[in-house]
Design brief:
The chain contains two helices and three strands; from the N terminus they run ββαβα. A hairpin with a 5-residue loop joins strand 1 and strand 2 (30-32). It is globular. The mean pLDDT is 96. It is an alpha+beta fold. Pfam families: DUF1272 (PF06906). This is DUF1272 domain-containing protein. It comes from Sphingomonas aerophila.
Length: 74
């Protein structure tokens, strides 16, 4: 199950689990759309492709809440 990290690890922008605009690699490194564009949609950590992260809403979000541990180290 995806961790659904709450922020862009490059700039710190909030990325709610129930909204679009987040991009992830296969290791779940998470970036906002602007940072993903700046990175040419390649993860700077593993070199993997950054893809649209699916959203999690409703009962699924209640049963499996998003992570609250922020990744940005700014």
């Amino acid at each position: 199950m995806l961790d659904m990290r709450p922020d862009c690890q490059r700039c710190g922008t909030d990325l709610p689990a129930n909204a679009g605009g987040a991009f992830i690699c296969s290791l779940e490194c998470t970036f906002c759309a602007e940072c993903a564009d700046d990175l040419d949609e390649r993860c700077p950590n593993c070199g993997g492709e950054l893809l649209d992260r699916p959203t999690r809403t409703g009962a699924a979000l209640k049963k499996h809440p998003a992570s609250t541990k922020r990744q940005h180290e700014g």
